[in-house]
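3.2 Worked example (two chains)
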Amino acid sequence: MPIKIPDKLPARNVLESENVFVMDESRACQQDIRPLKIVVFNLMPLKITTEAQIMRVLSNTPLQVEVDLLMTSTHAPKSTPKEHLLNFYKTFEEVKGDKYDGMIVTGAPVEHLEFDEVTYWEELKEIMEWSRRNVTSTLHICWGAQAGLYYHYGVPKYQLSEKLFGVFEHRVIDKKEPLMRGFDDVFYAPHSRFTGVRAKDIDKIQGIKILAESDEAGVHIVASPDKRLIFVTGHAEYDPFTLREEYFRDLEKGDNISIPKNYFPNDDTANDPIVRWRSHASLMFTNWLNYYVYQETPYKLDEIN
């Protein structure tokens, strides 16, 4: 089944070129089926790029998925055309009266700040609190995962000695969890961050569980007892060349940045990167949509509580 997105969203052309099944709104309305309603709170600066990444991993499912895009109202994005934001994005004021089957909170390049120093922190807190009663399951990514763990459970983030940057090996901790069904014992995921959370802090909190971790990258996937809150510290949704683009961007800025680990063959940037995470990325998002959203959400959205 396809993912349903606005007819003129730029991600549509990208996905169709990759043979991803995309359905326009007019065709979707003719199908007698209730799609899953997913809201994506996109905090990344390059919103159009992130849209395509998220839509891609949401598309590989037998379920019809309808996506709303959410942006901050307390912080004006600078790297995305205003016309695009006006055409495709909503603010919290516009959606807070709605209910959603699922929600995704993306990462954001604000790790150098304490949470309460982020300009839209109060707005994010309000949205995360709202999600408890109005969303069946929320998936938090990278900084979004750190923010969610801090807000919901008081888990602190820590500055790393250097940027965690590359593609790292992870192991499944709990094979019985539905989110991890079909995963290999060892799988790979990209990371790109300056801060992290620690297992010892999470282990102190009754109920929440670490589902996957890495010797190099640390805690990777965490779930609340009722699976309404999922936290993923990496970027499973990344495109094959995202880390390369970030690396050359940082070089041009004059940052002291190392070559992303386990990414370029022989650490030679002239080589195309080795892609070894996308099958598990697709599996993770499909499992989330199926087991934690579709299997749990009521048919009538207004019954979510």
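3.2.1 Second chain
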Amino acid sequence: MQSTGDARLGVKFADLLSPVQPSSPPDISSYARLPEPTTNIEQVKRDLKEFGYGFVKDALSPEQLAVLQNRLKDQAEGEVSAGVAYFDGGPKKPNQRIWNLPNKGQEFLDLLSHPLVDQFIPDFLGDGYHLSSYTANINRPGSKGMGMHTDQITINPAIPQYPLGLNLMWFLTDVNEENGGTRILPKSHNGLVAPDNIFDIAGTTFASGPAGTCLVFESRLWHATGPNVAKDGERPVILQFYVRHFVRPQENFTLSVTPEVVAKASDAAKQAMGFRVTATLGGVEGFRPDGTLVNRPENPIMALKTDGSRL
């Protein structure tokens, strides 16, 4: 059944029914500083802890940047031509999203082995982390943006005191407020904080950085795709959302990634796509030692007769 009425009142009503009662976010004008792009990884980690996000400058080399720009552009045009493209961003749907990037080119597989993954993800999410989603968002002029949300909002039971995921957002062009830089509520990851109106970006800041920057932000941070008021151009970004080993992913990569892609993927990519056993989770045909990389069994044990033959 489709709901009618004021969506903002509906959100407030749902909040009142929740056992968790969030407080209003602080005024960001009171902050002495906000995170800025830097090549100092330790500073980015400090920003992530204090603000819920940080920026790694020059995360992609010019060569890596060019390769990813070209592959994403070709893929986007190809999906339009094939009639399988997905659009959103308001009534006119100017934005294009590309899903399940492991299937879309070696360039995207290679990005799963980028050094930043090892520098941030294991320390933040622990052993056995995997991807929840791996997508691209091409934000174009006219986009109305999104409502404010957290990437942990769909995980039940709600555990706002504990981060379950971490995002790596790769800027494939210069990103700023005008071309739809992600809107952010700094420090909204700490404590029980939520915006007063998820449909209003007043009081937020925006992600800004040169092409090649990586925005690192955790799953409890309130954020949204920003409205794109630029006259031309587009704002393509790639998003890798990693989660703890026990969180079910948004994309079921073990089914959606083709066997041909899995066969050529690195160990890091296979772990990211969910092919690694962690503790007693993720095994195939029963127990497998922790850390084992598994595949679909070629000869699974089926229903058998007492003599061992197939039923």
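3.3 Remarks
The chain has one domain: 35-272.
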